[in-house]
Amino acid sequence: MTTEPKRIREVPKSQARRGVYVLPNLLTTAGLLSGIYSLVACLRGDFFVSALAIIAANVFDIFDGRVARVTKTETEFGSQYDSLADLVAFGVAPGILMFRFGLEPWGTLGWTAAGLYVICGALRLARFNVQRDDVGKRNFVGLPIPAAAEVIATSVLLYLYVFGTSPELAGAPGRRFGWLLLTYAAAVLMVSGFRYFSFKELDLGSRQPFSVLLAAILLLMVFLAEPQFFLFVAAVSYAASGPVRSILSRVGGPPAGKSDLTAQQDSSSVSQS
């Protein structure tokens, strides 16, 4: 009498290894801590440090993604963790900073505007997660939440640099109205269908024309001379690039050499976002 040999079930490698990659997730944690510290500084009334902490969180957010791609350690866990950290550092922290800095005198209208910014940031992150494999790597659909946070943080830094105090202490109702419009604009751009360059395919390690080096040196000099002004212009210019690209594409039509099928795919992708 013979017995059939027992079949050994092979366990997939994805189930056999359930660890996490330390370096990219550590950078994500650093960005999350920067967002938390921004909240703490804001509650203390130190708006300058609060805005700087948001910018620091953006630096960590850039590096954690690049490190994960270079070291080929991109995982679904890391992606979800990064989204949760982004909601705190670039959603809640800028929303509270904007409320305490320029929206608090508006009462209900002020905190609802800050709340709308946070909600739109959460929606932007959720849409990015579900469309991550459908949208091309060269563009983002809607203003990325780190860029929206940069608009708020750099605006606060520039205002403090020029006026030296908050809008409430300066007694300028017109300036406070500008913060209200800025908050609504950032919120709407995040959930819009405008396309923004992702810069993921930007390769600074390859050879570039000599003019690129000169332009980079010039920008570095401007940054060192007036960092608040430079960061503000860079953030606002990027935020405005989406609507500008949309207007130019409508006026000029599809770019030369682009097929009708590709143009239709792009338009349908935007309309579904």
- The portion of residues forming beta strands comes to under 5%
* Relevant CATH superfamily: CDP-alcohol phosphotransferase transmembrane (TM) domain
Average pLDDT score: 80
Helix content: over 70%
Core attributes:
single chain; 273 residues; mainly alpha; Four Helix Bundle (Hemerythrin (Met), subunit A); two-stranded antiparallel ribbon; 11 helices; 2% strand; disordered C terminus
Model description:
It is a single chain. With 273 residues, this protein is mainly α. It has one domain: CDP-alcohol phosphotransferase transmembrane (TM) domain (Four Helix Bundle (Hemerythrin (Met), subunit A)). It contains 11 helices and 2 strands. The chain has helices spanning 13-16, 22-43, 47-70, 76-103, 108-130, 145-163, 167-170, 173-190, 210-225, 227-252, 260-272; strands spanning 139-141, 195-197. The chain has a two-stranded antiparallel sheet with strand order 1-2. The protein is globular and about 50 Å long. Mean pLDDT is 80; it is low at 6-12 and 255-273.
